[in-house]
């Protein structure tokens, strides 16, 4: 079997598959409903009760026997004694005797024997006796038990992403908690002796560290949890020591940035080559130099994805390789970003043989997308103003003004 570097560059799909293979589906945990938002349901949700659980009134009004009002109208009302008062929540509702009606509120149980509700607006609203000027059809304004769902029915299937309506439904059928896929836990580690923490003074030749917090936030936005390790200088021993110290059973993935290209001080590459992690090129731009594998660390192994150091390369690599893998591990039915087609505003040239992800701004009103900034993978200011990535296939060498391009929406 030839190694990645001998075999030549991987396609984006090949490397994406290699990273995804490092992250099997996470286990199932049970969370309170209020914490289930955005999570993926791990087992089918069945109804523990029917909805509605009992026949109840859809209106404030009077529960009646419809047959006793046949022929009644505004001009020819009928009068009945009000035999009971049934607010919502009453649990001891008496049956309705013939020749009587019950005052009833929305959501209250329909008394046995009653088969229709007359809204209060069609009556004189009496409390002892009431005049009713309407002839309801049987079943009028009665919300039938089980008309929304029957008990035992499957309401949501495993793999459903939980949002407000789904969580509302779970509450409605009496579930206080839901089984969801666990969030993967990710360690984020930046390397580079030139890096200084924001807030500290910069010496000439130093830059502020930006990838660590950016990637940790991106991990959390993807729905996983992140722990940011303070960045380490380009020193293989220090780097391995930091990892050995911090990697534990609870870590699903380590993401590094920097130290993987062809320079002389490539700490990530030097520390991991020969220990389960492969490095090579992916035919893409930005983000050519990549690595991934299961790093052997003192008897244990941990999944690692090594991203390039330039901030734009790091974040684009995260979007293309890591985010879909994390979301797939959490059971997301659509782990990738939504992709739409837009017409290019302006024209673009692109190298043959490399898939390019250019930073773009989409104008949804006109369905056009324009590039922001240029191809330089250090241009983080343009990245911060982009709301999409323009995905140019490896075969594409130029796109003319107005031509359709694929666009990954970053703000979905
Ligand atoms: P490297 O891959 O380590 O050679 O880094 C490539 C470029 O990205 C260099 O200009 C680095 O200074 C820069 N870089 C690497 N890591 C970071 C980081 N964590 N934050 C900001 N810039 C970085
Ligand atoms: Mg570096």
From TrEMBL:
Enzyme's top EC category: transferase
Reaction it catalyzes: adenylyl-molybdopterin + molybdate = Mo-molybdopterin + AMP + H(+)
E.C. number(s) listed in UniProt: 2.10.1.1
Keywords assigned by UniProt, alphabetized: Magnesium, Metal-binding, Molybdenum, Molybdenum cofactor biosynthesis, Transferase
Domain MoaB/Mog: from-to ranges: 187-328
Listed cofactors: Mg(2+)
Family: Belongs to the MoeA family.
Function: Catalyzes the insertion of molybdate into adenylated molybdopterin with the concomitant release of AMP.
Name of the protein in its database record: Molybdopterin molybdenumtransferase
